[in-house]
Amino acid sequence: MREIAESGAPLIGVRGGTALTHVLIAEEAPLAHGLPAAVIGAYDDDSATTLLLSGRADLVGGTK
After folding, report:
1. pTM, entire model
2. Cystine design at 40: which of 9, 15, 26, 27 (Cβ 3.0–4.6 Å)?
3. pLDDT of res. 59
C-alpha cells in the first residue's frame, strides 16, 4: 500500500479477499497513508451503511 500512496494515487481501492481484509486495509489507508479508501464488495445496504458511519471506509461500491 505504501507504493500506491507514494505514487500519488487519490485513493486506495479494496476488492477481493475477505470482509476482514477489506476493513483492515480500509482502516489503514487513512491512518497510515492519509488516503481515503473505497471498498468494493457484495454489501447489502445495512453493511454498507455500517462501513461508512463507523468510519471504516470512505466509499462503498457494490457488486452483483
Report:
1. 0.80
2. 15
3. 94
Length of the chain: 64
26 CA to centre of own chain: 4
> What does the pLDDT look like over 11-63, one tens digit per residue?
999 998 898 998 999 999 999 999 999 999 999 999 999 999 999 999 999 88
Question: Grid coordinates in use for 64?
Answer: 452483483
Number of other residues whose CB lies within 10 A of the CB of residue 20: 8
The C-alpha cell 453493511 sits at: 47
C-beta atoms surrounding 17 within 10 Å: 11
**What is the identity of the amino acid at 2?**
R
User: For residue 61, what is the enclosing H or E element?
Assistant: strand 59-62
